[in-house]
Amino acid sequence: MAESAGLAESWSHWLKRVDHCLENFLPKKLSDQAALPEAMRYVTLGSGKRFRAALVYATGHSLGAPTGQMDIAACSVELIHAFSLIHDDLPAMDDDDFRRGKASCHVAFGEATAILAGDALQSLAFEILADQQGMYTPEKQLLMVKILAQATGAIGMAGGQALDLSITGSESSLETVEKMHKMKTGALIVAAVNLGVLAAGSTDARLLASLECYGKSLGLAFQITDDILDGTTDALTLGKMRDSDKRNHKPTYLTILGEKQGKALARHHVGLAKQALKDLYIDTTTLEALADFVTNRQH
User: Is residue 14 included in any domain, yes or no?
Assistant: First the structure.
C-alpha cells in the first residue's frame, strides 16, 4: 500500500477489528448444511483490503466517534461486498474463476452453493445492522438499513450489473461506463461513507452532503484505477483474473480512454474528492489519505 504511515497503522487496526467481528457474525460449520457456512467464511474471511470498511472507520474517526461505534456498519458493508463478488464471478455474470488470490466461490463450492452463500451474506448484512438495539437510535438504524439496501439494489449494485450485462464494446461511451460504475462500484463506496457518518451520530446536512460528494468522486477514481490495473497488471499481483472485461467484450475506462488519460481522470476525481472535504470543521487527514491511496495502489 502506498498510503501514509498514519493511515497504514490505522488501516491495519481496522482490518483486524472487522475481521474479528466478521468471524463472530458468520455462521459456524453445521453438520446438515456444511457447505453453506464454509462457503460464506471462505469468501469473507482472511482476504481483501477492507477498503469499504476503512471508509466507514475513517469517516467515523474524522467525526470523533469511538472505533467500536463503527464495527457493525463496517461489517455490514463488507458482507455486502463479499456477496457482490460471489455473484459477479458467476458464469452467468462476469465468469471469473479467480478472486482474492484463490479460486472463486463457484469454482471451490459449486455454482448452487455460491449463489446461496451470496444470498446468505446479503441477508446477514441487514440482520446485524437491524439487530443492534441501543447502539444507534431507531431512526438512524432504519436510515442505515435503507442506505445499504439502496446501494445493493436496482439503483445500486444490482442495477449497475444489469447495465454492465446489457452493453458491449461497440456501444461503449464514457457516459455509459460512468453511469454503470456509479451504480455497480460507487454506490457501495458512497454508502460506506454515509454509514460512517450516521454511525458516528452526525445529523449535519452540510457535512453529509460534502461527504457524499467525496464518496461519489472516490468511487469513480477507484473504478478507473481498477480498470487500468485489470488491463496492465498480472493476475498474481491483482489477486483475480485480469482482462475479464476484454474477454467479454465489455467497455472499460482503459479501452475508452487509454492508460494515460485514464490515470489523469482518476487523479481528477481524487482531486474532486479531496476538494469536497475543504472547509469542513472535521479532521479530514485520514479521508484524504484514503483518496490518495486509490490512485497509488498497485492492486
Answer: yes
Count of C-beta atoms within a 10 Å radius of residue 60: 26
Please check whether residue 203 lies inside any domain of the structure.
Answer: yes
CB contact at 8 A, 115 and 90: yes
| 299: in domain | no
Q: Which domain holds residue 123?
A: 5-293
| Cα–Cα distance measured from residue 78 to residue 50, given in angstroms and rounded to the nearest whole number | 7
Cell of 219: 468511487
Report the 10 Å Cβ neighbour count for 161. Answer: 18
pLDDT tens digits, one per residue of 77-129: 999 999 999 999 999 998 888 887 889 999 999 999 999 999 999 999 999 99
Degrees, nearest 5: CA angle 145-148-153: 120
Helix ranges restricted to H, the chain? 5-25, 35-44, 51-62, 71-89, 105-109, 111-130, 138-152, 157-166, 174-181, 187-199, 205-232, 235-238, 244-247, 253-275, 285-296
Which residue, among 163, 168, 212, 224, has the nearest Cα to 187 in the 3D structure?
212
Q: How many domains does the chain have?
A: 1
Whether residue 298 is contained in a domain is answered as: no
Tell me how long the chain is: 299
CATH of the domain at 241: 1.10.600.10
Distances (CA, A) of 30 to 34, 38, 73, 141, 168: 5, 9, 26, 30, 43
Mean per-residue pLDDT over the chain, rounded? 88
